[in-house]
Amino acid sequence: MTAANADLSPLIHLVDDDDAVRNSLALLISTIGLRVQTWADPLAFSTQFDRQGIGAVVLDVRMPGIGGLALLAQLVEQGVDHPIVLLTGHGTVDMCRRAFKAGAAEFLEKPVDDELLLETLQAAVRQHVRARQQRQADRDAQQRFAELSPRERQVLALIVQGLSNKDMARVLELSPRTVEVHRANLFAKLQVPSLAHLVRRYASLAEMDAPPAA
Fold this sequence. Notes:
Layout: H1 3-8, E1 11-15, H2 19-30, E2 35-39, H3 42-48, E3 55-60, H4 68-77, E4 84-88, H5 93-102, E5 106-109, H6 114-146, H7 150-160, H8 165-172, H9 176-190, H10 195-209
Parallel strand pairs: 1-2, 1-3, 3-4, 4-5
Helix pairs in contact: 7-9, 7-10, 8-9
């Protein structure tokens, strides 16, 4: 693996103040090809870890300074989008409930089952990749939508409402041929292959852009 590819590969942040646990879990995680960065100090992790990278975070619940639940809440409040897995040797139903309510992706008890942890982390990484891809797709859609002319936005809104070219021509007081041109232009600008794709991707943007009803 080249250095460039390594920088782009998923990274698991393992935060645990117990050296033995931290080292054994890091070794385990590395056996499935995931990179691991270990942190003994939760405060150092919270201020220094790469928020832009792809991966997941494993937090021990009981650590000096700041516990896993408090750190989880802090990260979520800061907008960190990494899936966060909590580990505890003293789990309770209430703690589990609090963890999920705070935004944990998973809550596992120590000694953690090796296969369960690895499966959980692989699923967390896939979740993170999908979420990042969806956010990028949303940003791309918003940028393309912003490039539409006011008339093209009107045509898009009417397409989303299910109007035919003939009906749109009547509503907009245009010729059907002119509506067809605007329709073709917006399909090209939005880079959509089909009507279904157009509606699925841009319906919400068109509805938010529509003027309020009189």
